[in-house]
What we know:
The protein is an alpha+beta fold and about 210 residues long. The chain has helices spanning about 45-50, 65-95, 100-105, 105-125, and strands at about 5, 30, 125-130, 130-135, 135-140, 150-155, 160-165, 180-190, 195-200. Mean pLDDT is about 80; it is low at about 5-60.
Amino acid sequence: MGGILTRHTGRTSQSPFGFRHQATAALGLCVLLTVPACGSSDSSEDAKASASAPSSAAGTPAPSSAAPKAVATAEVLAAYRQYLAEVTKAYARASTEGTDIEKYSSGAALATVQSETKAMNKAGQVTTGKPGSTPEVTAISLDRTVPKATITDCMDVSRWTLVDGATRKEVGLPTERLTRYVDVISVEKWRKQWIVIEEKPQERTC
């Protein structure tokens, strides 16, 4: 990629981090966002529901899915945060070499990072700082052959800066770009590892 993704009102991108070439050779940085009021169940509510669940006739507490769901939710968020850390590392060096991005992503998500870092490398641009992120698991399904989950994140890229790799001077980006926006992330569990499959940044702030 040739620079950082910019979130333009009225323009869409296939990736929350997508870098798009501008006429000036700069790319706009697209960020992930968290929906302020998402409808996922809170683990504390699940715990209360479990505590109040009726006991079986034998006196043994009735089975509850609260614990497995809470554990899976924590695993999903941990994997996603590691994914973001690897993306940040890759963009800081304009290369996925030396990162573990392939451990935490696949499909469209991985392809985007690979293509964007290549474009950045070609343009001689890298990033400094890191994006802000407040993710929440808004849906999770464990009763599937391939468990899946959805994360809604509020990405803040105001301190994630695109710079010239040689001079370290900041690359000018459109002033109308969104520096905080909602991003919806699809995650799947492959064997024992949760993997980011796709990101769908939304054209709205958070």
